[in-house]
Amino acid sequence: MKKYHFPIVVEVDEDGVYIVSCPTFKGCHSYGSTIDEALENLREVIELCMEEQATESVNQFIGVREIEISVPISA
Questions:
Q1: Is residue 52 within 8 Å of 40, Cβ to Cβ?
Q2: Structure confidence by residue, pLDDT tens digits, 25-35
Q3: Cross-sheet strand order for the sheet of 29-32
Q4: What domain of life does the native source organism fall in (predicted)?
């Protein structure tokens, strides 16, 4: 069995729900009340994406960067 490694983006919303995404596949997102739950849910979504799309044709992950933006403070 071949193993794959995919990048994952983890965020938390204002309600404390963890939102996870895999940028390798378009529309590959899930969520959970804990990071572990969110990642397990995302694992299922990734498996479904892999069934639908050949792994040779997925987006190529390059890396993560941050951008700084200055916003004026309103009075």
A1: no
A2: 989 999 999 99
A3: 9-12, 18-21, 29-32
A4: Bacteria
Tokens of 7: 């990048």
Judge if pTM exceeds 0.85: no
pLDDT digits (tens, 9 = 90+) for 3-61: 888 999 999 999 999 999 999 898 999 999 999 999 999 999 999 999 888 766 677 77
Q: Can you give the chain as a three-state secondary structure string?
A: CCCCCCCCEEEECCCCCEEEECCCCCCCEEEECCHHHHHHHHHHHHHHHHHHCCHHHCCCCCCCCCCCCCCCCCC
The pLDDT, as a whole number, for residue 55 is: 67
Q: Which amino acid is at 19?
A: I
d(CA 72, CA 35): 34
